[in-house]
Specification:
- It contains eleven helices and seven strands.
- It is an alpha+beta fold.
- Strand 5 and strand 6 form a beta hairpin.
- The chain is globular, with a radius of gyration of 23 Å.
């Protein structure tokens, strides 16, 4: 349903259009070599069209519904899509093809732009995701066993199955589709705990992760979310791990406040980062054991290409954790954590996510 336009004051609407202008200029520089001439940017009342490039008036309009109701990465996706139309029209001068013809598709593919950019989540092939995750889901259910030995065995087996599945898929190279999902609450400041968890997902769960800026039109300010990219099955698993470890770190902190190594509430961050580090060390140990069986993950070059097309310029920063007694206590507890809880059918929504958006693009066309 269209949000009441009165929810956006004149001041907020002006701020929003300024943000869109900045975004347009950056994308023009990043993806189009600054070859586009800035058009009139506007918000439209259209519900049917999420974005539109109008050659006659040189206007690029985005639907108010899209901008106010959908996550910001989707807004940017539609903006890029319409910029591609402008590029084909004004720079290449191609006017003898359909709007989404061959030249337009090529421009999008070369620049990592979603050629659909429908501004709404594209349903994953849930049947395929469920088939890929079904056995892993059953093993994770067993990993919830009260018997520690059985739980550990089930978790190791699920780790092996995920590794085998991804090595086989990467080797087959047959029509893989990549999904992009955004997690995290953009209205809140990010935490080192969440950053470590998503770094762990990138290292062990076959996805790429990057922190991206978003704009909050109703608040008139910017925020940050994490973008998780991979096959639909891997994105679903990584988002489950994200939610599971956030909840587990918080629970273990509350359960172990009597540990003499935890002196005050100021130790919470140190303890929880220790939990994540301890769990990561456990995964690293399992991966070493699996390497001994001949299972070696060499990465997915096509996923890396897809990621680099979406994000041609990235900056890597490293954060450090305070290594004190509280951190050691958390690390010890994290080493005993067993990943479990069966995933729901289809792609799950991480608990506490403030933004949820996804799009699917095939690796051979990136859109």
């Amino acid at each position: 349903m269209l949000l009441d336009a009165r929810l956006l004051s004149a001041e907020l609407e002006a701020e929003l259009l300024r943000e869109l202008l900045q975004c347009y200029r950056w994308q023009n520089h990043l993806r189009f070599g600054a070859r586009l001439t800035t058009p009139v940017l506007a918000l439209s009342e259209s519900i049917r069209r999420l974005g539109e490039w109008n050659r006659a008036t040189r206007t690029l309009a985005l639907s108010r519904t899209l901008v106010l109701e959908r996550p910001w990465p989707e807004v940017v996706g539609v903006l890029e899509h319409e910029m591609a139309h402008q590029f084909v029209d004004e720079v290449l001068g191609v006017r003898d093809q359909t709007a989404h013809g061959e030249r337009f598709a090529k421009v999008c593919a070369e620049r990592g732009i979603d050629a659909r950019a429908e501004g709404a989540p594209v349903p994953s092939a849930n049947g395929e995701v469920d088939r890929a995750l079904d056995r892993i889901r059953k093993l994770l259910a067993l990993a919830g066993s009260a018997n520690q030995h059985e739980a550990e065995l089930a978790m190791r087996r699920s780790h092996e199955l995920m590794l085998r599945y991804n090595i086989a898929e990467a080797s087959a190279r047959t029509n893989l589709a990549y999904e992009v999902r955004h997690v995290g609450d953009p209205s809140r400041r990010g935490s080192r705990v969440e950053a470590m968890i998503l770094g762990l997902c990138a290292e062990y769960f076959f996805v790429t992760v990057i922190r991206v800026p978003v704009y909050l039109p109703l608040l008139g300010r910017r925020g940050m979310v994490y973008e998780v990219t991979g096959t639909a099955a891997n994105v679903a698993m990584a988002c489950h791990v994200h939610a599971f470890l956030l909840a587990t770190a918080a629970r273990l902190w509350l359960d172990n406040r009597q540990d003499p190594r935890v002196r005050s509430g100021r130790d919470r961050l140190s303890y929880q980062t220790g939990v994540v580090r301890g769990f990561g060390e456990k995964l690293a140990s399992e991966r070493v054991e699996l390497r001994g069986t001949g299972l070696v993950w060499l990465g997915d070059a096509d996923l890396n290409d897809f990621f680099r097309a979406r994000h041609p310029r990235t900056v890597t920063r490293r954060a450090s954790s305070r290594l004190d007694e509280a951190h050691s206590a958390g690390r010890e507890a994290g080493g005993k954590v067993v990943l479990h809880r069966p995933l729901e059918h289809g792609a799950s929504t991480p608990a506490g996510s403030g933004v949820q958006g996804q799009l699917t693009a095939r690796r051979d066309g990136r859109g």
